[in-house]
């Protein structure tokens, strides 16, 4: 899908908010701890290259992405800091990773064997940098079994081609009030670390945003900061933030059509909304193909510092709102973000449709152009 720039719907990203959030977190870390910015999924919809640049300026010392292509995008943009791919990469692409100095996650003993095998069969001279993933209870990727972990250690120690740069795990419940599952995962990671106690590993990391915010980045000399980087609360509304974050993203558009509709008329597909009296109805050039999904029917946008309800079903490219009076075509409308005294936070929006802030920002599609405020930070 191409970016639609001849249309007023746009994602606006305030780079100074991201800079602020990185610096806030850095100020809480000790001297031995550093910060890798998690910029996977196009930096949670914010634009990977722009975000990576501002994070580097603010003091991040590396990046995490989810797949090899995301890592290559950063390298092609001239970013030279360490990059770790957090998810599985086929050993068939190890040559690409080595040539671009990208670190890969070792997600299983099988993978390590395949990687070693691949490396012995090629003439590559540089070693492959790996971070060993321990599955302590997330149940996604990583080594679970202590016997496997011990065998992985043996394989890595004997290998001249695999360079163990990191060991890490991922917590599934760092953002909940009940910490018992978090503690179980801590115990398992401690046991895995004991197996490696006689080996120097440069990076030990356990901390996503939630672990960094609410568990003092337990056992980490580098943290993997994602959601908080963008100014969002990884727990949604469950836990209070320990310090202020600034939300970086807004979604805005403009009225493209305004009309008065008499009482008892229907609006939208399925005729699900009926006007109660003579009503002013505005049309917005944004719909579910942009990520404003149909569940947002009944939610409110903000126009002229006042709420306006989304009435009728959200269409693919447009949706309708009920206005308090006649507004001119071209009047700005805020979908997420501040307008006058009001703000539609991503957590309010997420709560309305029954999801988390992450899913909303990642769901904003490529059709929406991204515009940057305070771009001077990157220039
Ligand atoms: C996405 C991801 C993160 C970042 O998580 P946030 O909650 O956004 O901070 C960290 N580590 C891993 C392994 C991830 O997949």
TrEMBL record:
PROSITE patterns: ALANINE_RACEMASE. The keyword Cell inner membrane does not apply. This is Alanine racemase. Substrate binds at residues 140, 316. InterPro entries: Ala_racemase, Ala_racemase/Decarboxylase_C, Ala_racemase_C, Ala_racemase_N, Ala_racemase_pyridoxalP-BS, PLP-binding_barrel. It comes from Vagococcus bubulae. SUPFAM superfamilies: Alanine racemase C-terminal domain-like, PLP-binding barrel. Gene3D superfamilies: Alanine racemase, Lyase, Ornithine Decarboxylase, Chain A, domain 1. Residues 248-373 form the Alanine racemase C-terminal domain. Pathway: Amino-acid biosynthesis; D-alanine biosynthesis; D-alanine from L-alanine: step 1/1. GO terms for cellular component: cytosol; plasma membrane.
